[in-house]
Design a protein that fits this description.
about 100 residues; alpha+beta; 5-stranded mixed β-sheet; 3 helices; globular
Length: about 100
């Protein structure tokens, strides 16, 4: 059971999360007419998932909002939330007006 859970986490959830991060970074950077890049391992250790232009950002699923009170994670960069269903991906951010 643990092996199945770990395989699902590594092969499905982690890769899906990375793909979603890239999609969000690309979409917002295109709307803002700027560049984007994913974070280095050193930057990720500082809770940075990527950069939109020169702005470091963290990307979290909307379910993180419900867990925010119990998660003791200090994030000092703008957070972009997303909601994913089987049919669509919604980006929730103040960066795009």
């Amino acid at each position: 059971m643990v092996k199945t859970w770990v395989e699902d986490l590594i092969f499905n959830k982690t890769s899906e999360g990375l793909i979603i991060q890239e999609i969000i970074l690309k979409e917002i950077s295109q709307r803002l007419h700027t560049s984007y890049r994913t974070a280095s391992m050193e930057e990720e250790s500082k809770n940075i998932d990527g950069y939109i232009g020169e702005i470091p950002v963290q990307i979290k699923p909307d379910t993180y909002l419900a867990q925010k009170a119990i998660v003791k994670e200090k994030i000092n960069v703008p957070i972009i939330y997303y909601k994913k269903t089987d049919k669509y991906l919604t980006i929730i951010t103040d960066m795009i007006k």
